[in-house]
Amino acid sequence: MHTREEFEEPEPVPPGPRTRGRPPLLREMLLVAGLFLVYKLGRQLTAGHTAEAYRNGREVWDLERALRLPGEGAVQSSLLHGDTLVQLANTYYAAVHFPATAAFLVWLYLRRPGHYVWARRALAAVTAAALVLHLTYPLAPPRLLPATGLVDTARLYGPSVYGPPDADQLSNQFAAMPSLHFGWALMVAIGLIAVTRTAWRWLWLLHPLVTLLVIVGTANHFWLDALTAAALLGLALAVVHRPRRAPASTPAPRPRHPGALVGADR
Prior knowledge:
Number of strands: 0
Helix content: 55-70%
């Protein structure tokens, strides 16, 4: 005898990140814009801590030497072999950071909604943590510290996104640690590696690698700024869990012809 369960279809597999509904677009646009404005306003709160920022910058420089980290000057020297190379580095610093991150989020929103929420939360977490550090530990970049022997490549060769530190009303140049240039670039690479399955996906790591060489070579950040950003991103990813992929669905078995069952029971 055949039981009734043989003719019942299996329960449907719950949707995974590929099929999960997208968050409302207007809400996401307002949320991202709001987070950006809060971050920009928060950075301005540290703009008046000039003396503390320079003192912290000298401490970080001395700490790196005590830790025997490679000198930032070696990277900058390689850029200064030709005007074209250093201008490309300055352009990468000025023009890639925000557009690349925005394009990453837009692509995830359209193609991987579940992973979009994961990436947006991780970026928001690491940015919020960075803002706290900017407020509590203002830091002058190495290009502003004569003790480093480094030059401001953007000011000398262009293009530059910063004005004189004391008169710059658009950005806070004393918020070097952590480096969100590197933190965001690393999240872009991790996110794209997580959602793609091609053998070439590991090449996305070139983005944070080039970003690291650019921010150090242009003297906008110390090595420790990037290491701190990586550590904060690691903590954020440990808290914000990555969505699971939907398991492969099993096709429902086709019921046997009733006539065959009758004959088989005889």
